[in-house]
Amino acid sequence: MIYNKDYFEIDGVKIYIENLENYIAESYLLLSNHNRYNEFNLHKYINQEKRKEYFDILVQAYLHNYNNIRELLTKIKPHVGVDNILNVSTSRDNIVNLTLKDYVYLQRDWCYCEDGESQIAKTVNSIQNVLPSEMGNALFLGCGVGRLAVEFSDIFTKIYATDKSYSMIWHINKLLLEGNFEFYTPQEKNVYSLENVAQKHTASISDNLKTKIQDKVEFFVSDVLDLPVQKECMDAVFSIYFTDVIALKLWFEKINNIINKDGYFIHFGPLDYFFSVESEMLTAQEFKAFFEENGYETITDEIVETSHLNDANSLVYKVYRNWLFICKKK
Question: Using CA atoms, how far apart are residues 116 and 50, in angstroms rounded to an integer?
Fold first, then answer.
């Protein structure tokens, strides 16, 4: 047993969060705000006379996504208190596209599009070429909807995959239970033809892969600053497109405590830094030096170029020069 605290469960999603009431209220509010964003677009596009076909396509897409999120909100609503909603620090006017990020990752991870499969294969292969072929437990931080964690299940006895987003884990659970999930990716610009304006996607997981996931991969909600796992229980901790979300000094001890002797820390991704404290925006060399000064030996330090979350329906193409850094705890 790796866990050191109890969980709360909503619609099959295990949540290991200390301030649970506030977390649930914040999740509910962010999803509500995103549906307000969908509503805004529905009101804006419905009954347009000019370019009617174009606007009808967008209305269909936003309405479908609106209903998807409404289903998710009904799962959370019974657990939300009015006082907690009122005390959430997130601005009421915030229209953070929380589930829109879910859909982007669902498209890459579980819709088997060419660009997404290429990004996943290059990411996984560059890491697997360095790691041993058989290992024990692994933890994936910021796992999203889980495909990258699943891809490593052949070399680990057990994989624990966590994200702070309730909706991300809810979506992977839904795929595991129901087999598929339909959604749209509306694009009002950078499109070649009307058929590219709002493509309908179907995310799915095969029965064979479901069985492997149920045997070897466990998904849960938690905060990297308060992980619900015991000390020295992981042979590897993965941070793929997650390291730069929170300043290194805030999470290093949490991660260091759970990695076994001779265990690995794996970073893959850019150093985009999604916080505003410039003094903590380390260069790759400073990041590497920090780990070496704290008892780790560098195994790999290289750049791996991949596409990133590309959509074939868009004229815009994104390429990342990812820093692959793997170190071993001495």
Answer: 35
